[in-house]
Request: fold
Amino acid sequence: MATLGDRMRECREARGWRLEDLAQKAGVSKSFLSDLENNEQKNPGVNYLRLIAGALGVDLHYLTTGQGARVTARNVTIPASLLELAKDEQLTVNQTMMLLDARRQIVSHRSNGTKSDDLESFDWRPFYQALKPYLK
Amino acid sequence: MNALALEPKVISLANTLGVSGGDAVTAIRDYCIKRIQTLTRSARSSLRTIGDLQRVLCEKLNLTIHEVWSDAELGQIVGSYVARGEMVFAYLQCDLDANTYGVLIRLNQRVGKQYAWVAVVDCRGEKRHRRFFTAWHEIVHCITAADQYELPFRRTIIGRKPSDPLERLTDVIAGDVAFFDPIFRPHLDAEAARDANLTFETVERIRDRFCPEASFESTLNACVARYTQPALFLKAGMILKSAEQAALDSPQKEFFKAPAPRPQLRVINTIRNEAARKIGLHIPPHFRIPGSSVITDTFRAGSGTTTHSLAPESLATWMTSGGKKLPALKVNVVARKIGEEVFALLSTQPYACRT
Reply:
């Protein structure tokens, strides 16, 4: 079964990049990337993976799980408030992305003016509590 | 062109939908109407009521609208979607709080290449009165969002504040398409011709014929907007002058405590049609209602009672505290007290002025 490292290498080579190229574009060290590709880095932080996925132009969810669309034309931006929650609750990258994707499914609210739908100021904790039983 | 058309988010949406140029609000509204016409083309002959239109549109947009009338019903909806792998529904009980009337959710499951959508309209308690408009608000969102969602990099048009111009725009368009002209206008023309004028009774009959689920106020707005003669709908209540309200809301406090301003019977908001615009029939919000107006008489009729009055009057008697007058237009006024507010219909009439 393909690993995170396998997918990273595949995406990098598809672009004809060397490790140095990716390191420069993502702003991380070459040795760190090498460790990741060789599956020697077991617990990479979500912030680093986000940088790498952004540089490769692939979906973070795909990079970490191998599921979903591979190449995207968008940059995945994880709101700082969600990152904070992920850190507090020690969520995996996959769980964090599941929360973000689920929240993005809510397209609009019709309210009387007291609710903010802005992802940065969104109160992620009750959202997480409600979805917690279903997070893999 | 109104201020909403100049909002960057509205202009951006027009660009996204490929209808940029000119008035963005009109362009987006026209886009929605055209899209509705395209989507319902094959079913046109069977579209007799607004319910028919809603049903066909929902089918074409892969949109399911659930009206929720009880906590138990909400629980069932949540359970059913969560069981299908749509875990975002687990948040719905928390999301549909006292201030939220409806939510539009994009499902993970697609129908062919298209997304499927679910709108949950909260009809519990007093929210039931807004269910018709809330459903159409979500339909309009779905019409404009569906195209954007086909482009992954435009997926983030979801974060918006309640005062967000896109929400206001959606309300404007929903107010238009919920009273879809080819279905609504025949009712308006027939009933208005019967009364030779637009009255509250006319509006009530139109609502009964067109869609009893629509609120009286939204039907009234739609009637005024489409009426061919100059007409203005005005809502009045006991409120402060805009400057007084701003001072009260300001964090900046006076060194010497001034006496609290007293609310007076003023205009809360108005809606006028194109014909009214052409003759200059316009009353700004917060304008003080003169004591001589039938609107004041109606307001004094007693709390909780509904009265119906009729009198011609000149707007020249409407004056600000600074002495500024409205143009001397002669208008026929029909006023009705609803709760602690007065709804008034102003239209031009040929008979003599009272003053």
User: Anything to note?
Assistant: The interface with chain A takes residues 82, 86-88, 90-91, 93-95, 97, 99-108, 117, 134, 137-138, 141-142, 145, 151-153, 155-156, 158-164, 167, 170 of chain B (CB under 8 Å).
